[in-house]
User: Fold this.
Amino acid sequence: MNQFYSRLFLAVMMLTSTLGMAQELLKGRVIDETTEEPIPGAIITIRGSNLQATTDAQGYFVFEQDLEEGDQMVIIESNEYLTRNIPVVIIKGSTVNLDPLYLKVDNVQQEQAQGIVSLTENDLADDDNAANNVSGLLQATRDQFLRAAAFDFSATFFRPRGLNSEDGKILINGLEMNKQFSGRPQWSNWGGINDLQRNQTFTMGLAPADDTFGGYGGVQSIDMRASQQRAGSQISYASANRSYRARFMGTYKSGLLSSGWAYAITASRRSGEEGFVDGTLYDANSVSLNVERKLSENHFLNFTGIYASNRRGRRTAITEEIKDLKGIEYNPFWGIQDNAQRNSRIREIDEPILMLNHYWTISPKVQLQTNTSYQFGKIGNTRIDNGGTRLDNTLGRDVYIGGAPNPNPDYYQNLPSYFLRRGNTPIDLANAYRAEQAFINDGQLDWEDLYRQNLTVREDGGNSIYAIQEDRIDDNQFQASTILTADLADNILLTAGANYRKLRSENYALLQDLLGGTGFLDVDFFAEEASNIDQIQNDAAQSDVRNPNRIVGEGDRYKYNYIIDANVVNAFAQAQFKSNKIDYFVAGSVTQTDYQRDGLYENGNFLGNESFGKSEKVDFTNFGVKGGATYKINGLNLLNFNGAYITRAPYIRNTFVNARQNNLIVNGLESEKSYSFDGSYIYRSPILKLRATGYYTQFEDGNDINFFFTENFQGEEGGFIQEVVTGIDRRNYGMELGIEYQITPTINLKAAVAAGQNVYSDNAEVYYTSDDFDGEIRFGDGSVNIKDYHVAGGPETAAQIGFEYRDPEYWNIGVTANYFANGYIDPSIIRRSDRFRLDVDGQEFNDFDPVLAKELLKQEQFDDYVLVNVIGGKSWRIDDKYVGFFATINNVFNIEYKTGGFEQSRTATFQSLNDDVNNPTQVFAPRYFFGNGATYYLNVYLRF
Assistant:
């Protein structure tokens, strides 16, 4: 027996010795060529094998597996650096030590990444659109398909895999940035500080992330630690014609100093009287300060402060009639006042973020990151309030006198189509011609007339009938998270974390500008008008019955005033396993969410607790599980598979029927369920990189709320209504393909293709509420026939082919041709309900024609189009400094195309829609968003 143990011991020692020798065959350290700072996270692979290593915080790597003897090719890759291929000779018993191994900064990639942010910023800032933010998620990746989606496809609101921005996660220093109100990132909160956000990792789709469970759209994690910023300074100037016209930016980064301190600061100014669309002013100032202190070898404390103030003029969708008269640059929201443009729809975002992060290296294989943040400030959206009145009780009763017509120049009663709706008599034609000429020659908001009308009323002792209303959201959010990373073994990585977010959101209307008047009566004149009541015998017109007939001045709250309290607690765990042939992972998460509304006004249509005080608290418990595996066929070919099942609580915007008026919660509200699968074939060699992916995602039990005015909701009566849609099922499936082929060391061919379908997989349910009637109204069985309709939001098909030339003398140029198809309009829900075919008595219209109805309800498909983009730049190295420029021209041939649109719901019945469609020009025609024509972006910089 002793002999057996002796032999066993000897065998173990020999094996250990052999492994030790194998571990010493290849090692090294990866360093920045310019700064000579270590590069953490660089990936080192052995061509033709499944072997891979990653550099640590000091840039070191070592291969712990056996290496095949003989000539080998070592490939070193890192984000923002040029890939290097190093030939080595492996000899058993000797060590190849690649220390130092220098990487050159990829200036082209850096500038292109910055260009992506700048070029898409116009879209990213409009956070009301679910589809617009997706491209911003993709800027941290080097995958060719995702680069095409972020840079070239973004102008069309293309959504990879048909996903919305809430399906992905944005993290800064381990803290989630997605808003609780909508689930979407508020990109403007950190716009203009690009230089401090270069340290990014992007986790595609369901792949395992480092800091969170993630979502179907992937995770973008931004590291703003001061010590992790590459030391140096930069100043730059950019000129463009898409959103802002000019941008100035300056940045200083110290790196980790010998004193143990690190500093990084950046500031920028972006401005422009208008972008590509008329009247869209841009006024933004941003600053970020990052300070880090090395407390000991194992403890670091980092502070990050971000202040990004953004003020922008907004645009809107327009009809074909308007486009034909004024062009795609037309914007009805602005007019001239005092010889300057003034936009009535201003979006202002001013929400500073303060973060404190602690990094603790418990042991070489265990790290703990603890984060806290506080975000506060405001989001404001202005518009013209034309409901001003005065109270008259001369006859012993209260009567509200006033109100004013809609001042928007694109209001349907101002357009030629309105005068031709009844026929083409000489009078109709003359009126239509006058309207046409007035619109062509002016067609902008008449600010002087608004002031003039208010002055006339003021001289008669009345209140303003026009005013500027600002819809305000003042958020205060505290967040804390902790993330544990542990190497349980050489091939097992455990990540776990918890996150808590507490939000207090004040929502109210602010009287911003009386437009020359003396006061504004805080009543809902249109509630009286809609009911055809001259004498108010109840409280229906009162915004707050506890303060009736209140005259408000500039800076006062009015109309609505409430608070939303929200709490979200989340925990996740993830384990990753690696082997020579298969890497796989499993992850799970659980989330507890609750919301409650606290009404500060008692609305006249919803008395008592229906609007005043706290609502019922709604809470949801949700979970998610996902897993995946990568099979390494060999060093060049890989197969990857992922799957997930996730439930998600409704967001605040989809929880309350009309939070501005009442405490009502959506009936039948429940969490959305979803499951998804994807599979990819990946080929990687020094000259060819390819990824082909197929995916399938099913969403169930979603909900949505729409607000609009309709002409014939109940018989001939119209009204402002809330449309509550529940039980929404969606199915997204398709494929993605990205290819890069390095023809020569300087010429690179690239191609990308996305083809899919995003459809409603079943009918949904809908009901309607309004302050014009009590309770809920359902038409027929309450169903909405949307099955097999396409979900609107950018083209479903996108394809690209192009090339890039990178000259050794540090200049580059690239050209891409991009094809888009299968974009669809957003269908009107009420037209697909039984209201479309049923009269108010519940009987089908006598003249209802199912064949014609099918044609009227056919979903519009947009035309295909091709956009050509050009990108290029040049840099010069002068000692240890870089000076250069980066430029793009998008849509070189100025192609006109539609990025989206929606059907108007004012004509909700078969009769009204058929009559409108048969007009010479449809009065309530669909409204479209048109893409920009030819635009440019030029950035000049100096790095030192």
Q: What stands out?
A: The longest helix spans residues 2-23. The radius of gyration is 31 Å.
